[in-house]
Amino acid sequence: MEHRIELRHWLFGLGIAAIVLGAVASVLAADPAHEGFATAGVLSVAGGLCAGFGALCLLAGTVAWAVAIEVDDPPPAG
After folding, report:
1. Where exactly are the transmembrane stretches of this chain (predicted)?
2. Taking the domains of the chain in order of start, what are their residue ranges?
3. Going by C-beta distance under 8 Å and a sequence separation of 6 or more, which residues neighbour residue 38?
């Protein structure tokens, strides 16, 4: 079950990093220094895609965590 635990940690870490990267890109898109429509548009789209990817990674990490907990539970005594 060790590979599931490692996968879960990687998914959570990747998800958090992608959400932070998306937030930074969105803040840069709103910065007046990046007034060009193409630059602001690209940064805005990149921020949205990063945040969406991060949310999917967090969801996958949560599912991997639930599967690992379910598999690790001992069978009922009886």
Report:
1. 45-68
2. 11-70
3. none
